[in-house]
Write a structure and sequence with these properties.
GO terms for molecular function: methyltransferase activity. With 317 residues, this protein is α/β, with parallel strands linked by helices. The protein has a domain of 182 residues: 3-Layer(aba) Sandwich (Rossmann fold). It is built from ten helices and 13 strands. The strands form three sheets. The chain has a seven-stranded mixed β-sheet, with helices on both faces. Bound molecules: N,N,N-trimethyl-histidine.
Length: 317
């Protein structure tokens, strides 16, 4: 199945359920990529600044924790590379130390990979970079074909978009592919109060709203649907006890939407929700529960000065 027919099938399945949903992985078309870049610039979206501070201030310590054998070439694999601005600090230090490595950014968005490759090649002419387009689960096998030792970067709280069971399966599958002593640098947003988390997913400039609604616009463009973008609202939700920020699209009225590529209409009640994103927040306990029996353990944890965000180093046992 090509990527687009998978998307169409997922839209059909998701909108045919009693509780409607469309996966957040479909946010990232060209416009979605740009809107996410803008979200990261929003004052309310603390995640990026916090993790940026960790990379800026603690890259040296992070590299020590990697325990790199300097005589051996390794692969630095970044899952969900995005714009690579945080990783830049790490790359700079690794290159300074004349360590031998290949940087492999992996992303669902070819557009993001093109942007990051061009930028990094310009900044670091000596960087050996080899981008790979694909979804996390699907590229794992291809990634683990080479024999060189691996360091995996999975930062930006990208794991948060996966439901706990899926996050469990993903980390276990990743762990199964790692060899003894290999590392995973896992960047996770930490559980904190609603008055900090909720505005991050509801910025006052309305960028997150546009990001969420762009999903419907994408379906209009790609599948000839007639979603009236004015008739849906961005609806963010977060409760600290649960620790999961959720984004929904809310139908403002009772309405029917036709999707040409499916030759099918979908009915929406007034106030009906489509789940479009979960962004799980973590703590040590939740992470340890997910890692149970995975043969990966927390080796070290790097925090920003507000203790909002954590970059964990996990080691394969
Ligand atoms: C890219 C998954 C980390 O969940 O915080 C930002 C995406 N969604 N605002 C997140 C996002 C709405 C983001 N991640």
């Amino acid at each position: 199945m090509t990527k687009n027919t998978t998307f169409l099938k997922d839209v059909n399945d998701g909108l045919s359920q009693k509780v409607k949903h469309i996966s957040s992985k479909y946010f990232y078309d060209k416009k979605g990529d740009q809107l996410f870049q803008q979200i990261m610039e929003m004052p309310e979206y603390y995640l990026t600044n916090c993790e940026m501070e960790i990379f800026k201030e603690q890259s040296e310590a992070i590299i020590s924790a990697f325990n790199i054998n300097e005589n051996q070439e390794f692969e630095l694999i970044e899952l969900g590379a995005g714009d690579g601005k945080k990783t830049q600090y790490l790359l700079e230090k690794l290159l300074e130390k004349h360590l031998k490595f290949k940087y492999i950014p992996v992303d669902i968005s070819q557009n993001s990979l093109d942007v990051i490759s061009t930028r990094l090649k310009k900044i670091f002419p000596n960087l050996h970079i080899e981008a790979m387009q694909g979804e996390y689960f699907q590229v794992l096998e291809a990634l683990f074909q080479s024999k060189n030792p691996k360091i995996i970067l999975f930062i930006g709280s990208n794991l948060g978009n996966l439901n706990d069971e899926v996050a469990h399966d993903f980390l276990h599958k990743l762990s199964d592919n790692l060899k003894w002593g290999e590392k995973l640098l896992l960047g996770l947003d930490l559980i904190k109060s609603k008055n900090i988390v909720l505005p991050a997913y509801n910025d006052s400039a309305g960028i997150t709203k546009a990001f969420n609604i762009n999903l419907l616009e994408r379906i209009n463009h790609e599948f000839g649907a007639d979603f009236n973008l004015e008739k849906f609202d961005h609806f963010p939700y977060y409760e600290e006890e649960e620790g999961i920020a959720k984004s929904f699209l809310k139908s403002k009225i009772k309405q029917s939407v036709f999707i040409k590529a499916l030759n099918k209409s979908f009915e929406f009640a007034e106030g009906e929700l489509i789940t479009t994103e979960v962004s799980r927040k973590y703590n040590d306990k939740i992470l340890n529960k997910i890692l149970e029996n995975s043969n990966m353990e927390i080796q070290e944890k790097f925090l920003d000065s507000e203790n909002y965000f954590a970059d964990y180093i996990l080691t394969k046992k």
